Amino acid sequence: MKNTIRLGVFVVIALISQQTLCAGSSVAKSVKIFKALIVEGERPEISSCLTTALQSVKDSPAYDKINWEPEMSTSAVVREYQVAGALIKETTLKALALVRDQRVFHLDNWTRVTINCQQINEGKPVISFKKDI
Amino acid sequence: MFTNIKLAWTRTLIIICALFAQVAAAADNEIQGAGSSLSNSIMQKLIREYGPAHRVDITYRAVGSGEGIRSIAAASIDFALTDVPLTKYELDLLGILQFPVFFSAITPIVNVPGVGSSELKLSGQVLAEIYMGRINNWRDAKLIALNPVLNLPDLPITVITRSDASGSSYVFTGFLSRESSEWAESLGIGSKLSWPTGQGVRGTDGVIKAVKQTPGAIGYAELGDAISNKSSIVQIKTGERFLTPSLESLNQSVGQFKWDRNTYYSIKGEGYSETQWPIVAVTYALIRRVCADDQDARDTLLFFDWILTGKNPAFTELSMSTPQGGVALNGIRRKFSEVVNSRGIVIQNFEPLRGAQ
Predict the structure, then answer these.
(1) Which of A3, A122, B74, B75 has the maximum number of C-beta atoms within 10 A of its C-beta?
(2) A86 vs chain B: nearest CA distance in angstroms?
(3) Strand spans (E) along chain A
(4) Whether A69 contacts chain B with CB within 8 A
């Protein structure tokens, strides 16, 4: 019984540590990507959206990867407005996205998408992907 | 022979004295900044005054806001100035503090033969249409309607834009976005854009020069720079009247600004009344939260504290303004105390200004 409890505690600690490490590495990766974009001279007002979009695509059920189009940076549209006292910064980006395909044998299928990025009250950007029609 | 020896001794003495004088006059420390080009004139004036008196050699390179942010992110400078604010999320990723330092009016500048400075009247909507390439001749019906008493020439409009990542562009396109929903939807706010029309040049100086050299040109620049370069400024429609940019109309706008965000991101008012200039640039300083060198960080903070609390007449001369009032200033000074060294020790404590919270 004691051994079972010990094992349970060990598993919980291991899981928490893993989660913490993963979260840490995700932030570290965001810092790295964001800094790199800024140092490369990317538009500062869209750089956090680019960073978060690159990170978010990994969790997307629809897409595996995104590639920026050549005119993406200067064609990104940034708007700012207030909703119920909250400051919303909204950025729209154009990209090519690789459609997620679980089949073993398949051809890469790239499609045009619009990425909507919302920063509410200066917080972490929230990303959504929409396939262009 | 004796005369030659005497001469040699005199020369040696002069050289030694000159060396001593140089050592005595040399600054104790050097700090470097870069960024916003619209802040260049005021920065050079302030540096000339502060540097020798406080024995700090300060250099400021007007390379544009985007390049300033790039340089502070790369840790190659002690401070950056930017007219493009960063959000809390972005500041945290970079480990940077942000606070406002200057306010300035951005004004359209024109070169319309036969039309003097402050004579041409424009509305935000018409300005957006000019920058979208829809209005492309000075005799366009919409321009004539706004300027019935002027004899506008039959001349194509040459639109001048900034090709570098620019705070002036960010502020100017912010104004166009407020005035034209079409601009907001299709182009938005940007330090660097795919401009629908026009010729891109680098820096505020580049815009002023290009407009001066091109009959029929229109651009945008900081008011103080426009005035000192004798550029023709315009009137903008605010409500039912037309307003000329001035220190007074700038201060009217600044007076209604809200300071409710910890990062000072997007300082602005609820709207602009008839007496408030509607295109206002807020120039922010960016400083690393954890500094690499205690003395450089201390000198940087003391320099900005001197700028903010000194009520320097140079601001009035250049039609610029600084954050006013004890509450605003104490808020910024509290920010200064967040700068620490690698051991977590606060670099410099700033006591609250008397009579303010």
Answers:
(1) A122
(2) 11
(3) 63-68, 77-83, 86-99, 110-120, 126-131
(4) no
Query: Cβ contact (<8 Å) for B266 and A45?
Result: no
pLDDT of A25 above 90:
no
**Facing A45 at nearest CB: one of B73, B94, B190:** B190
- CB B63 within 8 Å of CB B37: yes
β-bridge pairing A63-68 and A86-99: antiparallel
Residue range B197-227, pLDDT digits in tens: 999 999 999 999 999 999 999 999 999 999 9
B27 interfacial to chain A (CB closer than 8 Å): no
The encoded tokens of residue B118 equal 């402050």
How far from chain centre, in Å, is Cα A90?
15
What is the per-residue DSSP string for B46-65?
HHHHHHHHHTEEEEEEE--H
Mean confidence (pLDDT) of chain A:
84
Q: Are B195 and B159 in contact (CB under 8 A)?
A: yes
- Model pLDDT, residue B169: 96
The two structure tokens encoding residue B227: 């005035």
CB spacing of B192 vs A43 below 8 angstroms: yes
Shortest CA gap A43–chain B (Å):
7
What percent of chain B lies above the pLDDT cut of 70?
Answer: 92
Question: Do the beta carbons of residue B346 and residue B339 sit within 8 Å?
Answer: yes
Quickly state the pLDDT bin for B2 (edges 50, 70, 90): low
Query: Is residue A33 within 8 angstroms of chain B, CB to CB?
Result: no
* Choice among A21-25, B305-309, B335-339 with the minimum mean pLDDT: A21-25
pLDDT of A21 above 70 = no
The b/e string for B160-181 (b: 16+ C-beta within 10 A; e otherwise) is: bbbbbbbbbbbbbbbbbbbbbe
Q: Complex ipTM, two decimals? A: 0.85
Instruction: Output phi, psi for B217, to 5 deg.
Output: -85, 155
Instruction: Report CB contact under 8 Å: B187, A77.
Output: yes
- Using CA atoms of B97, B100, B101, B106 in order, give the dihedral in degrees to the nearest 10: 130
pLDDT band at B354 (very low <50, low <70, confident <90, very high): confident
Annotated domain spans of chain A: 2-131
Helix or strand (DSSP H, E) at B226: helix B223-228
Of the listed ranges A12-16, A102-106, B243-247, the least confidently predicted one is: A12-16
- Cβ distance A43 to B266 less than 8 Å, yes or no, reads no
Tell me the domains of chain B and their CATH numbers: 26-103+282-336 (3.40.190.10), 105-280 (3.40.190.10)
A-chain CB neighbours of B188 within 8 Å are 76-79, 92
- Per-residue pLDDT tens over the stretch B260-276: 889 999 887 777 889 99
For the segment B280-309, the average pLDDT, to the nearest whole number, is 95
